[in-house]
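Posted in: Protein Modeling Q&A

I'm a second-year student putting together a small comparison for a lab meeting, and my supervisor asked me to include a predicted structure for D-amino-acid dehydrogenase. I've never done this before, so apologies if this is the wrong subforum. The sequence is pasted below exactly as I got it from our records. If anyone can share the C-alpha cell output, I'd also love a short note on what stands out.
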Amino acid sequence: MTAEIVTAQPYQASLEKEARMRDGNMQAEKKSAIVVGAGVVGVAAAIWLQRRGLDVLLIDREGPGAGASFGNAGLLASSAVVPVTEPGLPLKMPGMILSPDEPVFLRWPHLPKAMPFFLHTLRMCTRQKTEEIAAALAGIISDSLEQHQALAEGTGAESFVVPCEYLYAYKNRRDFEASSFGFGLRRKHGFTWRELNDAELHRLEAMLAADMTFGVTFPDHGYIRDPGRYVEVLAAHFTASGGRIVTAEVTDIVRENGRVTGVRAGGETLACDACVLAAGIWSGPLAKSLGMRVPMESERGYHIEIEAPEETLKGPVMIAAGQFVATPMTGRIRLAGVVEFGGLEAPPDEKIFDFIRRVGKAALPHLPWRESGQWMGHRPAPADSIPLIGEFPAARGVYAAFGHHHLGLTGSAKTGRLVADLIAGHTPNIDLTPYRPDRT
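Accepted answer (user: helix_wrangler)
Welcome! Here is the predicted structure, written out as C-alpha cells:
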C-alpha cells in the first residue's frame, strides 16, 4: 500500500469539502495549519504550507533557528545516503567508543537508558537493511541543493545557499578504499565523484595538512553560509507574508473523534485543521501522546568556530580521519561533527571540544586558531536512521516531520514540501511508505 493512499486521500476529501466558493466574492475558505517547531524543517514546512494557500501558525519554545538548525555543519550533503548502520558497525562500535581518536562518545551513566535504542539500531546492521535505508535517505536528500534553492526563492535568503563541490580528504588512498561499501551505495544512487592525487588535492585546497595525500570531490552539492541566519531570514519572510510565530511550549495535540482540532501551548488551545510535528528530538513525547513510541535518541553534535583568515577554505571539506566537516561561513570557519550519546540533560563535554581542536589543528595546520564560538546541540536520531514523514494513524490531520539524524538541514526543504503537499491534498512524487511514522 502506498503512502499516498494511507495519508493523502482522507485529507483530500476534507480539502474538497472545504474548497467551496462563498460570499459572492468567489473566495475559497482558507484552511489553517499549526507547525510545531521553528527549526529549519518546521520553517520550511510553514513556508510551503503558506505557498499552498493555508493560514499558518508556527510555534516554538525558543524561536526560529535555534538548536540543531543553528549549530549544524551547514552542509547540503546530497550524497550522504550511507547510514550509520553499516554492516560492520556491531564489530567496530566497541573500539569506536573506547578509542580517543574516534569521533564517537558515550556517557556511561546514560547507557542503561539508551540500551533499547542501541539494540534496535544493531538489528539494522545488515547489508539488506542498510541498502533499504540508503534508498530511503536518497529519496529525501539527493536533490537537496535544488530543494533549498526553491525554498529560498523570493524570500531574501537566496544568497545563503551556495552551490559547491564537496571534498573528502584522506590520509591516503588505502583509507578511501576502506570505505568502498559506502561509495558503492552512493554510485548505486547516481552519485559520481572525481579522485584526486596528492598534488591535485592540495592544488584544490591548499590549507590541508601535507600528510593528506588523497581526495574525492563530489559535484553538484551545496552549503548554507550561515545556518542560523538562514532560518531567521526564512522565518522573517514567513511573517512578512502573513504567517504568525508564537514563542511557547506545546504541551498537547488536541483531538476530537480521532482528528486534530488544535494545539495546546502557553496555557491556551489554538485551533487548527492540520498540524505538523517538526520539533526534532522534542517531538518524541508529543508523538507518544498520539499513540506512537518512536525509538529515538539525541545524537549530540558539537562545533567550534574559528575566525576566518583572508584566504579561507574554498568549500566544505570532510576530514575523513576525524569524521568532521570544515565549512567556510560568513567571517569564520565552522568545524562540526562528532557523535555523543548522553541524553538531553547533561552539559557539553569539554573533552569533545578538545578532540575537535586536536583533529582540526592536525588537518588544517595553516589555519590561525582564533576561536570565536562553540556549541553543543541535539540531533534527533531514529534507530533506523530514516526520518518520520507522514500522517499519524491515530491522529488524522497530524503529520510527522522529524527524525533526520545529522541530515536535518540537508533534508529539511524537501521534507517541508512533502508534508505541505500531503496537507494540501497533492500526491507526492515519491513513495512515502519508508518514512511512515507507524513503521516497525
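A couple of things worth pointing out for your meeting: The chain has a mean pLDDT of 90. The longest helix spans residues 408-424.
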